[in-house]
Write a structure and sequence with these properties.
117 residues, 3-stranded antiparallel β-sheet, 1 helix, alpha+beta, 19% helix, single chain
Length: 117
């Protein structure tokens, strides 16, 4: 009996890992962001986002996922995927002080972060 329970547990656990990595799985933990003004005067509307967890596979913006609050589909490549290597093609990729990789898009003032490769 213990053997069957262990096998069932392994199947469920493995199924969730595969789902998270390939079929689109969003983080169920969300946080509300209040509206704010950027330094250039642009107003950002209040919105929901996934809580930070150092994984890109389950974010609303990741390809294969969608934001169920807005219906918008994600377009950012998953970390360590083949699509991640196309980001910033022909540009110098830099590494920030906390390890994030980015390239400058607007005269060295705007940073566009790229997925991990």
């Amino acid at each position: 009996m213990k053997k069957y329970i262990l096998i069932l547990f392994a199947v469920v656990l493995f199924g969730n890992v595969v789902k998270a990595q390939s079929w689109g799985y969003t983080n169920s933990q969300t946080t509300k962001v209040k509206g704010y003004y950027k330094s250039n005067g642009t107003y950002v509307q209040p919105h929901n986002r996934t809580k930070r967890n150092n994984i890109s596979y389950d974010n609303y913006s990741t390809k294969g996922n969608s934001n169920f609050y807005t219906g918008k589909k994600g377009s950012r490549a998953k970390d360590y995927s083949l699509d991640a290597y196309n980001y910033g093609a022909g540009r110098q990729i830099k590494t920030g002080p906390r390890g994030g990789q980015y390239y400058n898009t607007n005269n060295k003032t705007k940073k566009t972060y790229v997925p991990k490769r």
